[in-house]
Amino acid sequence: MLHRLNPVRLAFVRAAIDSHWHGDSRSLRPLAGKRALDVGCGAGLLCEPLARLGAQVTGVDAAEENVDAARAHARGAGLAIEYRWGDVGQLGLADYDLVTAMEVIEHVADKPAFLAALAAALKPGGLMILSSPNRTPQSRLLLVEAAERLGAIPRGTHHWADFVTPDELRDLLAEAGLAMGAPRGIAWSPMQGLHLSDSMALNFIVTASR
């Protein structure tokens, strides 16, 4: 499922990068000279495209086995990505131009502390990008009950009560000193598959900055 979702997220990320730094949408390396941090990086699904876009990338994950897999895959791809494991709030990370955390906040118990740690890692003038399932009846039915029963994701992956709404995330980001941009939905249809949408019934992705 994450492999299907990643191209949709990347389209949003690329547009946000070009908009934030007023870059050329035709450039192959819009992040050249910039540092990027991906929190909850898993096996490097987002880190590797960010590196190919020119960034000096750090990936962080709470699971050491994920970091080991990410390191091995990056070596095989010839990409110089720094991977670290542990609690992002305890790693002393700072001065990143771009901070991303995709499908992570819904798994975090202390959301204000998590966002404060992300904000601390973001340099002035930087860009943050977050995505999350929305807490709606549709997401409960499709992302939790149907997806887990059909085997699209492992059972117990999501706890619907831990999902955040766009309004809740806006307030949490404000507490961390960040202003949230206009959210976009990530929707699914039989004709288009997963795609960026005005509908936020299932999932949404946003930018944030100081």
Q: What would your notes on this structure say?
A:
With 210 residues, the chain is α/β, with parallel strands linked by helices. The chain has one domain: Rossmann fold. Helices cover 35% and strands 26% of the residues. It contains six helices and nine strands, in the order αβαβαββαβααββββ. Strands 1, 2, 3, 4, 5, 6, 7, 8 and 9 form a nine-stranded mixed β-sheet that branches. α2 (47-52) links the parallel β1 (35-39) and β2. The longest helix has 19 residues, at 2-20. The chain is globular.
Look at the structure and give the mean pLDDT: 92
Computed over alpha carbons, the radius of gyration is: 16 Å
CATH level 1 name:
Alpha Beta
Q: How do the SSEs run, as a string of H and E? A: HEHEHEEHEHHEEEE
Helix count?
6
CATH architecture: 3-Layer(aba) Sandwich
Q: What spatial form do the alpha-carbon principal axes imply?
A: globular
Secondary structure: number of strands: 9
Largest sheet: 9 strands, mixed
Question: What is the CATH topology classification name?
Answer: Rossmann fold
Oligomer: single chain
Which residues sit in consecutive blocks of at least 5 with pLDDT less than 50?
Answer: none
**Proportion of strand residues:** 25-35%
Distinctive features:
single chain, 210 residues, alpha/beta, Rossmann fold
Quick structural overview:
The protein is 35% helix and 26% strand. It has one domain: Rossmann fold (3-Layer(aba) Sandwich), CATH 3.40.50.
Give the arrangement of secondary structure elements.
Elements: H1 2-20, E1 35-39, H2 47-52, E2 56-61, H3 64-77, E3 82-85, E4 96-102, H4 111-121, E5 122-133, H5 137-149, H6 166-175, E6 179-180, E7 184-189, E8 193-197, E9 203-209
Parallel strand pairs: 1-2, 1-4, 2-3, 4-5
Antiparallel strand pairs: 5-9, 6-9, 7-8, 7-9
